[in-house]
Structure formats: C-alpha cells, structure tokens
Design goal:
This protein is mainly α. The chain has 13 helices and six strands. It has helices at residues 2-28, 32-48, 75-78, 84-112, 118-121, 131-160, 175-200, 204-209, 230-241, 243-246, 251-269, 284-293, 304-308, and strands at 56-59, 66-69, 167-168, 249-250, 317-318, 329-330. A two-stranded antiparallel sheet has the order 1-2. A two-stranded parallel ribbon has the order 3-4. It has a two-stranded antiparallel sheet with strand order 5-6. The radius of gyration is 24 Å and the shape is globular.
Length: 335
C-alpha cells in the first residue's frame, strides 16, 4: 500500500505541475481569454447575445407593411469591437493575477525553498541570475504580457462580436483528412517559423540590437519566457495570431499546437530539469544550453531543423556570445 500511495502521490504531483505550467504559459502571452473564446465561441454568443444580428421592426408610412432594419452603428460596432474595453480589462487583469500568483509560487518552491538542493533539479545548479536580472526579466516580461493580453482582448472582442475569421468548429465541414492534415501542417508551420525567425535574430546586427535583451538571462527562469524585446515578442505572436484569419483551420488543431508550444516554451525557460513525453520534443536542457552557449540549438519543439542545418550543440565545438553562425568553432583539444 505504501508503494501504491507513493506512486499516486507522485502522479498527482506531476499532474498538478502540468496544470500550473499550462496556466502560467497561457497567462504569459495574455491569451487565456482568447483561448476561451475560440473554444466556446458559439455558446458564449448565445449566452451574451454578442455577434447576433440585431434587427429593429419598421412600419411603412405608405402601406402599413412591416419590415426590419439594422440600427445605426457606432465606429466600434462597425468594426465588431463594441465593449472592447471590457474584453481588454478582463484579459489584462486576469493574466497578471494568474501569472504573478502562480509564477511567484513556482519561483518560491524551487528558487527559494529548494535553492540548497539545486543539483537535484536545476539545469545550471551552480549559477543563478543576479537580483538585477531577475527584476529586469519580471518587468520586461510584464510589459510583453500587457501587450499580448491587450491584443488578445481586442481579438476576442472582434470574434465575439461576429468578426470574420476562417476558423471552423465542425469537423464534417471539411472532413477528417483535412482536420488531421491541418494539425500536422500547423505544427510544422509553427516550428519552421520559430526556428528561422529565431535564427534570424542571431544575425550579429539583430542580435546586438534586439535579441541580446533576451540573452542577458544566461540562466533562464519561468519569468524569462516572454522577457524579450517587444518587437521580437510581437513578431512571434503575430504569425500565430494571424493563422485563423488567413487559412481555414479547426479550433482544436489551432489551440492544441498553440498551447503545446506555450507549455513547452515555459518548460524550456524554467531552468528546471524536465524530460519530454514525445520523442520529437527536446528536453529542457536543450534550450537552457542555448542560453548558456548562445548561438546554437535554435529550435523549440523538435531537433529537426538544428539537425538539418548542423546547429545542434556539439561537445567538440566551442561556443560563445561572439561566435556567430550556429556551428561554433573548433576546440583546441580536438585539433
């Protein structure tokens, strides 16, 4: 019974940990409200009445016949943005509450309460961020969370008020073949964009002007996940947010890939030793080594592009902040 109890306790702890990471990951991008709207759009529109065509009955003065007409619209209504301030307020406030509440608990449990046991759980057990860099990542991450949650609130408002998108909710509308294809295609698209955009930011000029802001965190933490130059944050979020407005995609594949990426993005920046269930998903050491060695391991959710372009970190190579290109340089020991 003792062994069964320990296994149940361990399983519950892992599940609770995954739930916390999931909520944190969604909050860091400020997208909890948009996720809910995408999941339950039709039900929410029925409950709130938003997005439903409002018509006013009219009576003709000539022959007494009745008809319907649309009431005059304000500027916000004409762009499907009525009540946008409430959507933005909900998105921003709840994202900050969730993020600060859970992230502080996460930080306290590992980085304060278990700091003396760092070799058991930390990727870089002998090194920690300076207090200055901890403050910097919290403030910068908060700025980007404000940007993300504001954009999320606006998009959620647009969708709820009947704004057009190409997202659909019924699988038979396009069939199971397209559903499964779009799931794989969106995952590949996301990883392709992430790898090449990330590698672009490791161009010497762009790195020094923009991406270096994110690499000041040599020992990343959960606070580091979105602590980057706002322009970079907007570009990463932009290509994902644009997808349901450009191509037909079912809500499930879109949200699954989105949340999957956010979940592992937070794990990768946590600084905590974490494996991966899926064979294609790198462990947390992979991206932690990117922060440690700078211009290497550019991928996020697969090894493929780093393998294809020979940018996987190798023990026989030397890396550093001034060694650009992704392949390092020959070490003197191997010469």
């Amino acid at each position: 019974m003792g062994l069964i109890g320990e296994n149940m306790s361990e399983s519950f702890s892992k599940f609770a940990f995954m739930v916390i990471v999931f909520f944190l990951a969604t909050a860091t991008r400020g997208e909890w409200l948009l996720v809910i709207v995408y999941m339950f759009r039709d039900q929410l529109q029925q409950i709130t009445g938003l997005g439903l065509n409002e018509q006013v009955p009219t009576v003709s003065a000539d022959n007494g016949t009745t008809g319907t007409t649309h009431p005059p619209q304000s500027l916000l209504e004409s762009h499907h943005l009525q009540n946008v301030h409430w959507f933005v307020l909900m998105a921003v406030s709840t994202s900050f509450i969730i993020y600060y509440g859970m992230a502080y608990g996460w930080h306290y449990y590992y980085y304060v309460n278990r700091r003396h046991l760092a070799k058991e759980w930390k990727c870089q057990p002998d090194k920690f961020l300076t207090p200055e860099n901890e403050r910097h990542e919290i403030l910068l991450g908060s700025l980007n969370m404000l940007i993300g949650s504001t954009a999320s609130g606006v998009i959620a408002c647009y969708i709820m008020n009947g704004g057009h998108s190409k997202m659909y909710y019924s699988v038979p509308e396009r069939g199971w073949a397209y559903f499964l294809f779009s799931l794989v295609a969106f995952f590949v698209y996301n990883e392709t964009m992430a790898y090449y955009l990330h590698r672009l930011f490791h161009n010497p000029w762009l790195y020094k002007k923009i991406h270096k802001m994110h690499h000041r965190y040599h020992q990343p933490t959960a606070w580091s996940a979105v602590a980057m130059h706002p322009l970079e944050f907007i570009m990463y979020q932009g290509y994902l947010a644009a997808t349901p407005f450009l191509v037909p995609i079912h809500a499930f594949p879109f949200l699954f890939v989105l949340l999957y990426s956010y979940y592992y993005g937070l794990c990768d920046h946590s600084g905590i030793k974490m494996g991966a269930i899926w064979p294609w998903q790198p462990h947390s050491y992979f991206h932690d080594n990117h922060h440690k060695h700078f211009h290497v391991n550019f991928g996020f959710n697969t090894y493929f592009f780093d393998w294809f372009h020979d940018t996987l970190r190798k023990e026989s190579r030397v890396y550093g902040e001034e060694v650009f290109g992704g392949r390092g340089k020959q070490s003197q020991k191997s010469e």
